[in-house]
Each structure stands twice: as structure tokens, then as C-alpha cells.
Amino acid sequence: MRRKLAAGNWKMHGLAADLDQVDALSVAHPAPECDILICPPATLIARMAERAAGSAIHVGGQDCHHADAGAHTGEISAPMLADAGATHVILGHSERRADHGESDALVRAKAEAAHRAGLTAIICVGETETERDDGRTLDVIGTQLSGSLPATARAQNTVIAYEPVWAIGTGRTPSAEQIAEVHAHLRARLVELIPGGDDVRLLYGGSVKPSNAAQIFAIPNVDGALVGGASLKAADFSAIITALENA
Ligand SMILES: O=C[C@H](O)COP(=O)(O)O
User: Model-level pTM?
Assistant: First the structure.
């Protein structure tokens, strides 16, 4: 039985005053029937981890370097994230793949670094609109998965997030059939690629909101969500968490 996961990605949003959201969520969900994770910008990780101590809320990073330490100005390593109180890290988000040219091989190296530091890697995959229109979605997703997944990946340290690039921040979502097709494909590939692949959690991400969460969580092989915009407001993220608990 895979425990569900509601993960919020704050992206480049959030100042100290926004840490109040953690208090609101921990009051609303003192003993949730799913895992709850917030990935704030790096500047807030340590303070958020302190704020979340004793609650059911986990804190994660949005990226890490593939090396544990070194002369890499501006970068943050996986051991640093763990030291700050993070338990998870998002890797290979399409915004990083697009903005920073991150390849599957680099994402894989980062995931290995995350595992060395004891972090759970949330590895993102997703097709562009052109790739979907060309009928290449499953090929693209399969290639990203096999290229980004390190040999160290197991259900205990790895989560896969399917995020169609065209659905991120757009208000558009794939049909239930389209999500089900991709998640079934990911599940089959995971079973082939790693021991215990059937137990790896698969998240959907891309314009998840309180109004569509229950419908998305009813889709087979959807074990939770990676939520962007709607995770910035505690009331909206709380409603999504509740939908996941009830799924
Ligand atoms: O990491 C989160 C995703 O990019 C989804 O973002 P969104 O919920 O704002 O569409």
C-alpha cells in the first residue's frame, strides 16, 4: 500500500512572513492520512523546518548540486539541504530543465547525491505540448525516467512526479484518461527498472486545485500531487490535502 503524498512547490515565492502557512496547515492536519511536504525557496528551509518541528509537515528543497561540496558559487548541496532540516528534494523540474539546461544524466547525478545525503528525490518528468501533439508523450516520459533514475532508487527514497509542461501554471489539465495512460506507463517502466518499482509513489503535477483535486486523485496510479500555485495559500493546499486523504 503506497502512502499518499501532497507536495507543495513554492518555486521562487515566499518570505519569512509566509511561514505562518506552516502553522495553519499543522493545525488543520495534526494527524494526516497522507504525507505532507512543502518545498520553499532555499532561504526558508531551515526556518520552515524549525517551524514544522513536531508537526506532520515535512520540508524539502527544490534542487541540489550533484557534488557534496566544492567550488560552485551559488549552489546548494544535498548534505546542506539535509543539514537545514530538509527530508526531500525536487529534481529535474521542467523549469530547471528549460531554464538551466538540465539533462537526464545531470538529474540522475543529482538524485544520487540526494540519496547519499539520505534525502528522498522527487524526480520530475513531463512532455511539452509539441511532444504530445506529435504523439511522443510516452516515449519522452519513458526516456526521461530511465535516464534520470539512479541505480540507488528504491521506493523508500524516490518519488516520480509526472508534470506535463503545458499544464504547469496554465489552468489546463490533461484528461483523466491521459493522466491514467502516462501513470500506467510510468508504473510499468518502474517495475522493469528498479526492485520494488510497484511501491514507488507517482505524483501528478500541473494546475492541481481544490476544484479538480478529487477527480485527479481518483485516477489509478496517482498517489498524490506536486502542487505549485495552489500550495501558496494554506486554505487551498489544505483543501487539496483533504481531497487526497479522502481519495
Ligand atoms: O511543481 C509544481 C508544478 O510545476 C505545478 O505548478 P502549478 O500547480 O502552479 O501548475
Answer: 0.98
